[in-house]
Amino acid sequence: MPLIEINFDGIVGPTHNYAGLSLGNLAATRNAGSVSRPRAAALQGIAKMRANIALGLAQGVLLPHRRPDRAWLAALATTPEDAAPALLANALSASPMWAANAATVSPAPDTADKRCHLTVANLVTMPHRSHEWPETLAQLRLAFADRTRFAVNGPVPPPFGDEGAANHMRMATAHDAPGVEIFVYGVPGGPFPARQHVEASRAIARLHGLDAQRTLFVQQSEQAIAAGAFHNDVVAVANGPVLFAHELAFADKEGFYADLRRLMPEAEIVEVPASRVSLADAIASYLFNAQLVTLPGGEMALILPGEARANPAVWNWLQDMVAGNGPIRRLEVVDVRESMANGGGPACLRLRVVADPATIDPRFLVDDAKLDRLEAVIAAHWPETIDPAGFASPSLWQQAAAAREELLTALDLAALA
User: Would you call 332 a catalytic residue per the annotation?
Assistant: First the structure.
């Protein structure tokens, strides 16, 4: 079977909460202390996956991690019962749901050894995410166990921050054709931390064996980071030969665009002008944190959160775009409001992997029937609400553990328990 793009969505975990842990993520900090709805959040994620399948897209899943993370707390010489409230909040975070931060992926056509490379992100900048990588790595090594087709690499060492595919774009004439890989990094100095270090990006490019002549390292604009674009995928997304970006996304857009066109003359750049959509509106609506996908018929679609439709400036610009003769021809709106309230849109929830599905562990691939089973588990076992004031409740920890165990059983993945 030819190589195709598969979207692996993170299933929203049973401890999904609004603790406001992510500095620079405006939605997360704005909703700190609010009551979350883990069951609704997870069911919204399932509905998004169903919508993708209905569009003819291949769909996979990544699973929630153990929460609270007792091993991480033990390394800090404490337990959930004794941990300070701030540590307990970090140990309970359901942030692995945002699979775009799981790893950086280079498909086989781009790499020296012609294997698909996945390097797990270290996520060292934020304490609540810094302890994700061991469980993520275990899942990736199980899902992509065929070592003749895949290389699943451990993280870049600290202090070089790497936040995965959220700061990486790939452009190609087709998914199975050689591509141009674009690593977007930040520079410290503004009010919020720059999470992707250029040294980490360069290390990953070397580890993946990428052609230096077809690899770009591009600085994200400090203006975008200061406005709340904590990852590049909040202000830019690419698919096939198309780059969809805000006018203010990059520090040197003219230089970047010139390099891109030199390497890929077929590239089409769809730029949203700041005069039509401000950075504030783009970030609040997650216009760019959308899934830009190629449908089976070759048409390109943008899968957007409902917040993009609710923003007049954003929606008016999108209507003008699709009325024109550009490469993006279709808009699909999904409801992921519970994830959005914590700072993660449709693109945050998925990791893109270009591969032959037959080479992937089928337990990580889903269809409607499997989603029916997962939906039933979530409806029966996920907490309906979580109040941050109740983080210290052992009954919450027990419910979360039991819910995750039921999910692993439904997927025949007890090996991850």
Answer: no
Pairing of strands 350-355, 4-10: antiparallel
The catalytic residue among 132, 135, 163, 181 is 163
DSSP string of 310-334, one letter each residue: H-HHHHHHHHHHHHTTSSEEEEEEE
For residue range 75-127, list pLDDT tens digits in order.
999 999 999 999 999 999 999 999 999 999 999 999 999 999 999 999 999 99
Structure-block tokens of residue 213: 């002549």
116 is catalytic: no
The overall average pLDDT reported for the chain is: 97
- What is the rounded CA–CA span in Å between residue 83 and residue 87? 6
H helix intervals, 64-171: 70-75, 85-92, 127-130, 133-143
Full set of structural domains in the chain with CATH: 4-416 (3.75.10.20)
* 3-state class percentages of the chain: helix first, strand second, coil last, to nearest 5: 40, 20, 40
Task: Tell me the one-letter amino acid at 116.
Answer: C
Which residues are within 8 A (CB) of 75 and not within 5 positions of it... i.e. 6 or more apart?
Answer: none
Residue of 231, 307, 332, 338 with catalytic role: 231
Tally Cβ neighbours within 10 Å of residue 344.
31
**Tens of pLDDT along 235-253?**
999 999 999 999 999 999 9
Out of 175, 181, 348, 381, the active site residue is 348
Joined tokens for residue 321 = 């775009």
pTM of structure = 0.97
Are 123 and 92 a contacting pair, CB within 8 Å? no
